[in-house]
Amino acid sequence: MKKVFPLIALVLVASLLLGACGPAATPTAAPEPTSTTAPEPTMEPTMAPTEEPMPAIGSPEHPIKVLFVPSVDANIIVTGGEIMAEALNQATGLTFEVTVPTSYAATIEEMCASPTDTMAFIPGLGYAIASQLCGVDVAFKAIRYGYPVYWTEYIVARDSKFQTLADLQGASWGYPDQNSTSGYMVPTVELTAAGVTPGEQIQTGGHNQTVSAVYNGEVDFGTVFYSVPLDPEGKPLFTYDDYVAGKITSLEQYEIPAESIPNCAPDAEGKKLLCDGYRVLDARANIRTDAPDVMQKVRILAVSQAIPNDTLSFGPEFPADLRAQVEAALLAFAETDAWKESIGSNDFYGWTGIAPATDAEFDFVRAMVEATGYTIEP
């Protein structure tokens, strides 16, 4: 605002001087008072700054993040994950970015930190915790050769003295990751229930590394995932219905026939671990190229209760319309040969298919978490 008071003062002084020099003025009515307030300056209208719109989720500038827990070799995950990402892109037109976080916990943290644009292949434990932490929502569960479940296997050197879980008291324990369902959570609960306190505990970083640690004598026992072997006709040694009916009662039923174990070896292409036609599908098969005699050196000591299979879950605020597109594309991709080169490969996660899953299916895992006071560690 302009200052007007000095100008007014000068006018008043001039008036007084003129009055003093001239004749007395005839009294007249007082003039109407005038305002001495200067008018407000007219401000130029300004436009509010406009923000750049966020790129649409699924665009090249804002790809959907596809997260895979690092349970097997990261190079295999990235290679197979890219095959999946390309298939989903072709089906939906959306852009996907494959990521392998450094740990199970980091995968969950990323989903909670990026609720609108993440989808992840995470085990039951990870899902149970992530759903409670920030509302991560399950879409599918893995199917492996007709099984919606899998197991923990306790493995030891074939020539070791260990014969039961009780024998593991004080023994050194190798496990993949503290946030692995089959590798850590389930055995923690079962060992505690059996009154067994292991000795030194070593986090190996993955199921493959745990098998290698047992194979190399670096730990007394390890805990890794178990899947039912296939017979020479390509059928599981026992069906899921047999398991549910309580027909699988001995350890021998989980393993290939003892007389075939000396003949176990990778096939000519190195893609399968075969024993007189029987195919090994548990974690031991994953190190077959580095350790062709793994079956002759490492045996199963015990098998856990059944665990809900791994999940494909979405961030809590993932757009519903995009999710529907991705789910439809995944179901279609699961029926293609390319699936077998991706997550369906036994060197990857070994999913032979997917099926819709519900949150309630993981109450069993939540009960274990609550019973143990388990919390996920970043």
Classified by CATH, the class of the largest domain is Alpha Beta
The CATH H-level homologous superfamily of the largest domain: Periplasmic binding protein-like II
Number of domains: 2
Helix and strand run: HEHEHEHEEEHEHEHEEEHEEEHEH
Major sheet: size, sense and barrel closure? Answer: 6 strands, mixed
* Mean pLDDT across every amino acid position: 88
Strand content: 15-25%
Low-confidence runs (pLDDT<50, min 5 residues)?
1-36
What class would the helix/strand composition place it in? alpha/beta
Under the CATH scheme, the architecture of the largest domain is: 3-Layer(aba) Sandwich
Helix coverage percent of residues? 25-40%
From the spread of the alpha carbons, the general shape counts as globular
By DSSP (H or I, 4+ residues per run), the number of helices equals 10
The radius of gyration is: 35 Å
| C-alpha termini separation | 59 Å
Strand order of the largest sheet: 2-1-3-14-4-15
Strand tally is 15
CATH topology of the largest domain: D-Maltodextrin-Binding Protein, domain 2
